Give the backbone structure.
Amino acid sequence: MDSNWCSNELPEGLTGLAAAVDDLATQDLDGLTDAARAERILALRRLLDRQEGCWLRELAAVDARGAAGAEQGVQAASTAGWLRGRLRMGASAASSLVRTARALFRGPLTKTAEALCGGELSVAHASALAYGTSDLPTQTAVEAEPVLVAAAHRLDPPRLRRVLGHLHQVADPDGADRHAQRQHEQRWLWLAPTFEGMVALHGLLDPEAGQTLLAALEPLARPANGEDPRSSDQRRADALTELARRALEGGQLPQTGGVRPS
Protein backbone atom coordinates (compact mmCIF):
# COMPACT_ATOMS: atom_id res chain seq x y z
CA MET A 1 0.00 0.00 0.00
CA ASP A 2 1.19 3.52 -0.75
CA SER A 3 2.96 4.95 2.30
CA ASN A 4 1.14 8.27 1.73
CA TRP A 5 -2.16 6.68 2.74
CA CYS A 6 -3.17 6.62 6.39
CA SER A 7 -5.48 3.90 7.65
CA ASN A 8 -8.37 6.37 7.76
CA GLU A 9 -7.78 7.49 4.17
CA LEU A 10 -8.19 4.16 2.42
CA PRO A 11 -10.01 4.14 -0.93
CA GLU A 12 -13.71 3.35 -0.77
CA GLY A 13 -14.57 -0.27 -0.01
CA LEU A 14 -11.20 -1.31 1.44
CA THR A 15 -11.65 -0.47 5.14
CA GLY A 16 -13.15 -3.88 5.91
CA LEU A 17 -10.25 -5.65 4.22
CA ALA A 18 -7.73 -3.51 6.10
CA ALA A 19 -9.45 -4.35 9.39
CA ALA A 20 -9.35 -8.07 8.59
CA VAL A 21 -5.64 -7.86 7.81
CA ASP A 22 -5.00 -5.94 11.03
CA ASP A 23 -6.87 -8.62 12.97
CA LEU A 24 -4.92 -11.38 11.26
CA ALA A 25 -1.60 -9.71 12.13
CA THR A 26 -2.46 -9.61 15.84
CA GLN A 27 -3.86 -13.13 16.25
CA ASP A 28 -2.16 -15.28 18.89
CA LEU A 29 -0.99 -18.49 17.20
CA ASP A 30 0.75 -20.07 20.20
CA GLY A 31 -2.24 -22.20 21.15
CA LEU A 32 -2.72 -23.74 17.71
CA THR A 33 -1.75 -27.32 16.91
CA ASP A 34 0.74 -28.04 14.14
CA ALA A 35 -2.11 -29.36 11.99
CA ALA A 36 -4.07 -26.14 12.46
CA ARG A 37 -1.03 -24.04 11.55
CA ALA A 38 -0.46 -26.08 8.40
CA GLU A 39 -4.12 -25.74 7.39
CA ARG A 40 -3.89 -21.97 7.90
CA ILE A 41 -0.90 -21.77 5.55
CA LEU A 42 -2.85 -23.49 2.78
CA ALA A 43 -6.02 -21.50 3.40
CA LEU A 44 -4.16 -18.18 3.53
CA ARG A 45 -2.43 -18.97 0.22
CA ARG A 46 -5.81 -19.61 -1.43
CA LEU A 47 -7.18 -16.37 0.01
CA LEU A 48 -4.15 -14.47 -1.27
CA ASP A 49 -4.67 -15.96 -4.74
CA ARG A 50 -8.30 -14.85 -4.64
CA GLN A 51 -7.24 -11.37 -3.61
CA GLU A 52 -4.67 -11.30 -6.42
CA GLY A 53 -7.48 -12.19 -8.81
CA CYS A 54 -9.57 -9.28 -7.54
CA TRP A 55 -6.55 -6.98 -7.88
CA LEU A 56 -5.98 -8.07 -11.49
CA ARG A 57 -9.66 -7.56 -12.29
CA GLU A 58 -9.49 -3.98 -11.03
CA LEU A 59 -6.16 -3.45 -12.79
CA ALA A 60 -7.76 -4.55 -16.06
CA ALA A 61 -10.54 -2.01 -15.53
CA VAL A 62 -8.09 0.81 -14.78
CA ASP A 63 -6.11 -0.16 -17.87
CA ALA A 64 -9.22 -0.23 -20.06
CA ARG A 65 -10.30 3.24 -18.89
CA GLY A 66 -6.83 4.74 -19.25
CA ALA A 67 -7.09 5.67 -15.58
CA ALA A 68 -3.50 4.90 -14.56
CA GLY A 69 -2.23 8.02 -12.83
CA ALA A 70 -5.70 9.42 -12.15
CA GLU A 71 -5.07 9.36 -8.39
CA GLN A 72 -2.52 12.14 -9.00
CA GLY A 73 -4.63 13.96 -11.56
CA VAL A 74 -2.54 12.89 -14.55
CA GLN A 75 -2.72 10.19 -17.21
CA ALA A 76 0.27 7.86 -17.11
CA ALA A 77 2.03 7.00 -20.35
CA SER A 78 1.30 3.33 -19.72
CA THR A 79 -0.31 1.17 -17.07
CA ALA A 80 2.89 -0.84 -16.62
CA GLY A 81 4.93 2.34 -16.23
CA TRP A 82 2.47 3.58 -13.62
CA LEU A 83 2.85 0.36 -11.63
CA ARG A 84 6.62 0.66 -11.82
CA GLY A 85 6.58 4.22 -10.52
CA ARG A 86 3.89 3.95 -7.85
CA LEU A 87 4.58 0.44 -6.54
CA ARG A 88 8.32 0.29 -7.32
CA MET A 89 7.90 -2.81 -9.46
CA GLY A 90 10.46 -4.13 -11.89
CA ALA A 91 9.68 -3.56 -15.57
CA SER A 92 9.16 -7.23 -16.41
CA ALA A 93 6.92 -7.84 -13.37
CA ALA A 94 4.74 -4.82 -14.16
CA SER A 95 4.40 -5.76 -17.83
CA SER A 96 3.56 -9.36 -16.91
CA LEU A 97 0.81 -8.27 -14.53
CA VAL A 98 -0.77 -5.96 -17.09
CA ARG A 99 -0.62 -8.69 -19.74
CA THR A 100 -2.21 -11.18 -17.34
CA ALA A 101 -4.95 -8.74 -16.31
CA ARG A 102 -5.84 -8.04 -19.94
CA ALA A 103 -5.90 -11.71 -20.93
CA LEU A 104 -8.05 -12.77 -17.99
CA PHE A 105 -10.50 -9.89 -17.72
CA ARG A 106 -10.46 -8.27 -21.15
CA GLY A 107 -9.42 -11.24 -23.27
CA PRO A 108 -10.17 -14.88 -23.91
CA LEU A 109 -9.12 -16.48 -20.59
CA THR A 110 -12.39 -16.10 -18.69
CA LYS A 111 -12.23 -19.56 -17.09
CA THR A 112 -8.72 -18.85 -15.88
CA ALA A 113 -10.03 -15.65 -14.28
CA GLU A 114 -12.78 -17.59 -12.53
CA ALA A 115 -10.33 -20.19 -11.23
CA LEU A 116 -7.92 -17.53 -9.95
CA CYS A 117 -10.63 -15.51 -8.20
CA GLY A 118 -11.95 -18.75 -6.73
CA GLY A 119 -8.60 -19.58 -5.17
CA GLU A 120 -8.12 -22.62 -7.41
CA LEU A 121 -5.07 -21.32 -9.29
CA SER A 122 -2.10 -19.16 -8.34
CA VAL A 123 -1.09 -15.94 -10.08
CA ALA A 124 1.97 -17.80 -11.38
CA HIS A 125 -0.30 -20.30 -13.16
CA ALA A 126 -2.52 -17.52 -14.52
CA SER A 127 0.51 -15.58 -15.77
CA ALA A 128 1.86 -18.69 -17.48
CA LEU A 129 -1.45 -19.18 -19.28
CA ALA A 130 -1.67 -15.51 -20.25
CA TYR A 131 1.85 -15.45 -21.65
CA GLY A 132 1.61 -18.88 -23.26
CA THR A 133 -1.57 -18.06 -25.19
CA SER A 134 -0.73 -14.45 -26.10
CA ASP A 135 0.53 -15.38 -29.59
CA LEU A 136 -2.34 -17.74 -30.38
CA PRO A 137 -5.48 -16.78 -32.32
CA THR A 138 -8.25 -15.83 -29.90
CA GLN A 139 -10.49 -18.71 -30.94
CA THR A 140 -7.67 -21.21 -30.43
CA ALA A 141 -7.04 -19.85 -26.92
CA VAL A 142 -10.76 -20.03 -26.09
CA GLU A 143 -11.03 -23.64 -27.29
CA ALA A 144 -7.86 -24.73 -25.49
CA GLU A 145 -8.53 -22.95 -22.22
CA PRO A 146 -10.62 -25.65 -20.47
CA VAL A 147 -7.86 -28.21 -21.08
CA LEU A 148 -5.19 -25.74 -19.97
CA VAL A 149 -7.03 -24.86 -16.76
CA ALA A 150 -7.44 -28.55 -15.99
CA ALA A 151 -3.70 -29.02 -16.56
CA ALA A 152 -2.98 -26.05 -14.29
CA HIS A 153 -4.82 -27.83 -11.45
CA ARG A 154 -2.33 -30.72 -11.72
CA LEU A 155 0.96 -29.13 -12.78
CA ASP A 156 3.35 -26.55 -11.39
CA PRO A 157 4.00 -23.48 -13.60
CA PRO A 158 7.21 -24.80 -15.26
CA ARG A 159 5.48 -28.00 -16.39
CA LEU A 160 2.43 -26.00 -17.42
CA ARG A 161 4.65 -23.90 -19.68
CA ARG A 162 5.82 -27.09 -21.38
CA VAL A 163 2.18 -28.00 -22.07
CA LEU A 164 1.71 -24.55 -23.59
CA GLY A 165 4.79 -25.08 -25.74
CA HIS A 166 3.26 -28.31 -27.06
CA LEU A 167 0.03 -26.44 -27.80
CA HIS A 168 1.98 -23.93 -29.87
CA GLN A 169 3.63 -26.72 -31.81
CA VAL A 170 0.25 -28.24 -32.63
CA ALA A 171 -1.65 -25.01 -33.31
CA ASP A 172 1.05 -23.10 -35.17
CA PRO A 173 4.21 -25.15 -35.85
CA ASP A 174 5.89 -22.42 -37.91
CA GLY A 175 5.03 -19.74 -35.35
CA ALA A 176 6.26 -21.95 -32.50
CA ASP A 177 9.56 -22.48 -34.25
CA ARG A 178 9.96 -18.74 -34.83
CA HIS A 179 9.11 -18.03 -31.20
CA ALA A 180 11.64 -20.62 -30.01
CA GLN A 181 14.28 -19.11 -32.25
CA ARG A 182 13.56 -15.61 -30.90
CA GLN A 183 13.90 -16.89 -27.35
CA HIS A 184 17.16 -18.62 -28.21
CA GLU A 185 18.54 -15.42 -29.71
CA GLN A 186 17.67 -13.56 -26.50
CA ARG A 187 19.98 -15.75 -24.38
CA TRP A 188 22.84 -14.11 -22.51
CA LEU A 189 25.06 -14.62 -19.52
CA TRP A 190 27.05 -11.96 -17.67
CA LEU A 191 29.78 -12.75 -15.16
CA ALA A 192 32.21 -10.31 -13.57
CA PRO A 193 34.52 -10.33 -10.54
CA THR A 194 33.73 -7.84 -7.80
CA PHE A 195 36.26 -5.73 -5.92
CA GLU A 196 36.09 -8.21 -3.03
CA GLY A 197 36.90 -11.22 -5.22
CA MET A 198 33.31 -12.50 -5.45
CA VAL A 199 31.85 -13.21 -8.89
CA ALA A 200 28.54 -11.62 -9.88
CA LEU A 201 26.41 -13.30 -12.51
CA HIS A 202 23.15 -12.56 -14.25
CA GLY A 203 21.56 -13.87 -17.41
CA LEU A 204 18.71 -15.36 -19.37
CA LEU A 205 18.42 -18.82 -20.93
CA ASP A 206 15.95 -20.12 -23.47
CA PRO A 207 13.41 -22.63 -22.09
CA GLU A 208 15.26 -25.78 -23.18
CA ALA A 209 18.60 -24.58 -21.84
CA GLY A 210 16.98 -23.36 -18.65
CA GLN A 211 15.25 -26.67 -18.01
CA THR A 212 18.52 -28.51 -18.69
CA LEU A 213 20.32 -26.38 -16.10
CA LEU A 214 17.52 -26.71 -13.55
CA ALA A 215 17.44 -30.50 -14.00
CA ALA A 216 21.21 -30.69 -13.46
CA LEU A 217 21.13 -28.44 -10.39
CA GLU A 218 18.09 -29.98 -8.69
CA PRO A 219 19.75 -33.11 -7.22
CA LEU A 220 22.81 -31.11 -6.17
CA ALA A 221 20.76 -28.34 -4.55
CA ARG A 222 18.79 -30.51 -2.12
CA PRO A 223 19.32 -29.92 1.61
CA ALA A 224 22.14 -32.06 2.95
CA ASN A 225 19.96 -33.02 5.93
CA GLY A 226 17.13 -31.74 8.08
CA GLU A 227 19.44 -29.25 9.76
CA ASP A 228 21.05 -27.80 6.63
CA PRO A 229 21.41 -24.08 7.49
CA ARG A 230 21.75 -22.91 3.87
CA SER A 231 18.99 -20.97 2.14
CA SER A 232 17.60 -22.27 -1.17
CA ASP A 233 19.58 -19.57 -3.00
CA GLN A 234 22.77 -20.65 -1.25
CA ARG A 235 22.13 -24.30 -2.09
CA ARG A 236 21.68 -23.42 -5.77
CA ALA A 237 24.92 -21.43 -5.72
CA ASP A 238 26.72 -24.39 -4.17
CA ALA A 239 25.09 -26.73 -6.71
CA LEU A 240 26.31 -24.62 -9.64
CA THR A 241 29.83 -24.66 -8.18
CA GLU A 242 29.67 -28.42 -7.70
CA LEU A 243 28.39 -28.90 -11.25
CA ALA A 244 31.34 -26.92 -12.62
CA ARG A 245 33.79 -28.79 -10.39
CA ARG A 246 32.51 -32.17 -11.61
CA ALA A 247 32.84 -31.02 -15.22
CA LEU A 248 36.44 -29.97 -14.58
CA GLU A 249 37.32 -33.18 -12.79
CA GLY A 250 35.64 -35.29 -15.47
CA GLY A 251 38.28 -34.34 -18.03
CA GLN A 252 35.73 -33.94 -20.84
CA LEU A 253 35.99 -30.18 -21.41
CA PRO A 254 37.55 -28.87 -24.64
CA GLN A 255 41.19 -27.87 -24.54
CA THR A 256 42.21 -24.22 -24.40
CA GLY A 257 45.61 -23.44 -25.88
CA GLY A 258 46.41 -27.12 -25.90
CA VAL A 259 45.66 -27.45 -22.19
CA ARG A 260 42.52 -28.97 -20.74
CA PRO A 261 40.94 -26.85 -17.92
CA SER A 262 41.39 -28.28 -14.45
